[in-house]
Amino acid sequence: MDSSINDKSCKKFFDDSYVIRHLVAYESKNRKNLESAGVYAFLSKYNADDLGLPSWLIFDNNGNLLADSQMRPNGAGLKTKGENIGCPATAKEVESFIDILKKTSRLNKSEEEAVEKRFRQNEE
Question: What is the pTM of this model?
Answer without folding.
Answer: 0.92
